[in-house]
Amino acid sequence: MSVIYILLTVSVIVGVTFLIIFLLAVKSGQYDDSYTPSVRMLFEDEIIKVKKNKSTQTKTD
Predict the structure, then answer these.
(1) Angle at CA 7, nearest 5°, toward 5 and 8?
(2) What is the full per-residue pLDDT of the chain (61 aa) written as tens digits?
(3) How far is Cα of residue 46 from the mean position of the Cα atoms in its chain?
(4) Most CB atoms within 10 A, among 19, 34, 44, 60?
């Protein structure tokens, strides 16, 4: 039973360590995208087609 407590403690420590490393990487700008804005003007804009729904009115007696 004591092995479960040890494994649980170690896994929580490893999880918190990875969370701290991830937060430091995000804060330092590791995941900022610096490539896409430079090539964005090379792509054509998508043409958006607007569908107009004509409502038909029926007369019921």
Answers:
(1) 65
(2) 899 999 999 999 999 999 999 999 999 988 888 788 778 778 777 777 776 666 666 666 5
(3) 22
(4) 19
